TrEMBL record:
Keyword DNA damage: no
Keyword field: Membrane, Transmembrane, Transmembrane helix
InterPro entries for this protein: Acyl_transf_3_dom, Acyltransferase_3
Domain of life of the native organism: Bacteria
Residue stretches spanning the membrane: 21-39, 51-72, 93-113, 155-176, 181-201, 213-232, 244-260, 266-285, 306-324, 330-351
Protein name: O-antigen acetylase
GO biological process: one example: lipopolysaccharide biosynthetic process
GO cellular component: membrane
MF terms in GO: acyltransferase activity, transferring groups other than amino-acyl groups
Cited Pfam families: Acyl_transf_3
């Protein structure tokens, strides 16, 4: 790992950069619903050219899961002594307050738009029109159970997955430590088997069964990230310098192209596994890159990545509701990007950063003397 990519505490800056660029990729992928996907040959050229990586939103979520597996491994390894209760409390504190704040803000904004006289129907231009009742409140408060993510904020499906898998992550860490790459390959095989099982489960059982199967599928990428945490230096050293460009091209292609939004679940699951391998290669390759201006931009974005991920869809939908009919797509795009970044910075300051600080205190047991690494914030 390039020394310039590490802080004194061993924090890997290139992972922060990957998070930042991944969050922007998710935002750009959602922007296409505001008319870009109707631009004929321009849209076709985008999805079949290298530009596709800029709008690879689902792939970016897979990358987030890989990075979470990496980060949680470092987090647990840095706890001295380890306590599951402290670990679990830290994860809840880290994820939950920004999540709840984003939901409350979304409900208030949609309510305000309605009171101002704006009219829209649910799913118009992919937007949501929340109709809040006690069941929706309970489902979203619980987070880890089945919930209709389109009720308020569609992107929270991945936060639900993150929380579910975080609960069981110490088991993932144990299996990877015990069986190494065999555990990762076994989970990949499970993912490939889950693809055909999900439609069958939806047809014959409750949503709990299909949600459990999908959670198992997405846990595969936490396995990959966990294994990478132990092996990234060794793997990086095995890439010959003369082959770096070829490996970069292969990794980007494997990351960007094995997924398309219209695919059925079986093809999507298979594509996810390929994307996971591509994401792992990107993590390894980024560890070979010395710190530079491009990575510093990503690192700045990475600071706000969680808040940007949670809140960008609200900004986009609000912009569509307010501007799309009268001003068109370009205005929606021009409003959404800066407004989403500004809102992410505000939500980070008000909710995410306090959650990060409290999470760190919980990890070290509220004792400044207790040894704990700050290599990564999970």
């Amino acid at each position: 790992m390039a020394s310039s990519n590490l802080t004194k505490t061993g924090r890997a800056h290139y992972l922060d950069s990957l998070r930042g660029f991944a969050a922007v990729s998710v935002m750009l992928s959602h922007l296409v619903v505001a008319g870009y996907n109707q631009l004929g040959w321009i849209w076709t050229a985008t999805i079949y050219s290298p530009v596709r990586i800029l709008i690879a939103g689902h792939q970016a979520v897979i990358l987030f899961f890989v990075l979470s597996g990496f980060a949680l491994t470092r987090m647990i390894d840095g706890m001295n002594p380890y306590s599951y209760l402290r670990y679990f409390a830290a994860r809840v504190v880290r994820l939950y307050p920004p999540y709840v704040a984003s939901l409350i803000l979304a409900v208030l904004v949609y309510f305000g738009l309605e009171r101002l006289g704006f009219q829209w129907t649910d799913r118009w231009m992919y937007t949501v029109h929340p109709q809040i009742d006690k069941n929706i409140i309970l489902e979203h408060a619980l987070l880890v159970g089945p919930l209709n993510v389109r009720d308020i904020n569609p992107v929270i499906w991945s936060i639900a997955m993150e929380m579910r898998i975080s609960i069981a992550f110490p088991i993932i860490l144990f299996l990877v430590r015990r069986f190494g790459l065999y555990a990762v390959v076994a989970m990949m095989m499970c993912s490939l088997a889950i693809g055909p099982a999900v439609p069958w489960a939806n047809a014959h059982y409750s949503s709990y069964v299909s949600q459990t199967l999908l959670t198992m599928h997405y846990s595969t990428f936490f396995f990959i990230g966990c294994w990478l945490s132990f092996n990234v230096d060794r793997l990086r050293s095995r890439i010959p310098q003369k082959h770096l460009v070829a490996v970069w091209c292969f990794a980007l292609a494997l990351y960007a192209y094995p997924f398309f939004g219209d695919w059925e679940i079986i093809a999507r699951v298979c594509g996810d596994v390929a994307v996971g391998v591509g994401a792992a290669l990107l993590v390894i390759l980024c560890s070979t890159v010395d710190d530079n201006a491009f990575l510093r931009i990503g690192r700045w974005l990475g600071k706000y990545s969680y808040s940007l991920y949670l809140n960008h869809i609200l900004v986009l939908f609000a912009a569509i509701i307010v501007f799309y009919r009268t001003a068109g797509s370009v205005v929606v795009w021009c409003v959404t990007i800066p407004a989403a970044l500004l809102l992410a910075m505000l939500m980070h300051k008000l909710f995410e950063w306090p959650a990060v600080l409290l999470s760190r205190k919980i990890v070290r047991g509220f004792s400044p003397r207790r040894a704990v690494t700050n290599r990564l914030d999970a």
